[in-house]
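Ligand: zinc ion. Inputs:
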Amino acid sequence: MTKNAPEQKVKKRRPRTCVGCGEESPKRELLRVVRTPEGIVCYDPTGKANGRGAYVCARRECIEAAKKRRSFARALNREVPDELFDELLKRCAADE
Ligand SMILES: [Zn+2]
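Predicted complex:
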């Protein structure tokens, strides 16, 4: 408990859980989807965009599970366009 530890730092250490399989993963293995303050849901390649984020593993099965179960829509309280899933799938194909 040093006086140099700002509260914000603690908040950022929430575990990042995949909406597809429900497992926690290190941040870089997850793709971030963000709902911007304007209410637009999009893929966030930087992982730093403003807004509410949800995560999915960079794995086809997790992305497809998330799509089927509308996990992002529930996590972000906003409908998610099919194109977003296409983008995520493209992203995980590029990593393999
Ligand atoms: Zn997963």
